[in-house]
Amino acid sequence: MSTVINEYLFTIRGRPALFKRSMFCGELLATERGVCPFSHTGYRSLAGHTRLPIDQPDTRHPTEIVTQNFLESIAAENDRQREAALREARKTVRRCSRNRLPAPTSVGIDADEAVLHGYFATDAQRTELWQTAYLLYHELAESDKYTPDKLAATAHWDEEICHHWMEHVQGKLALLRRLMSGDFSIEAFSQGIPLGLCSGYFDLPPKPGGEPMIVIPTIIAEMAFEIDELEADSATESQMNEADDDEDDTDDIEESELDSIPTPETPEIEQLRLF
Fold it and tell me: How far is CA 164 from CA 103, 110, 122, 161, 197, in A?
């Protein structure tokens, strides 16, 4: 009788990914800080992605349950989600710099997503994501565009809720400043990790060489200008910018590309759109 392997260390794009067997197939876990190709959270459930044997224990080797093609498809989808998070955040920066103010909750969500996608990203990707997120938190917490009295008048919140929400945003901005300085010690952050920015990244051992320091951007107008320059080289982004200038109702970025989910070309993979 063959031994059931409950854990197996895969390699995805040169990075470790620990497979753990579970009742519903298994899961992938990041084992160290740094780039995690398969998920921006460091965790990926594989429940529902494979056909399980009927009426018998699943004793297959992990490489029979998930293939390298399958793992690469997950990594490619994670790339698209990270790029979409950056695109949304940059677009909101442009709107704020042009005084076309989005709803405060929308600005906060875009900033949160940019921070979350930066934890397990490369240094260059993290820099882009976190500098953009910083500008959005700064707009909410330290500019005069989203003061509690203005929020109370436009967001249909009472002033007490507005003050509480603003304190929460200020906590996120303070955390991001610490992270951008390379300080990832939770103990040093007396208020704890603000809800919405928690990550499994903090549960992993510190990187031997430490975390990179990221320059804090100065003013939103400069960042908006840099963003426009970067996007000028992309035909797709240029078309999006033109549409953004011409019509207000084009401010919602089309996410149809995320509806097309890759599935590995292997018979054991259930072709369910569950990524």
Answer: 17, 19, 34, 5, 17
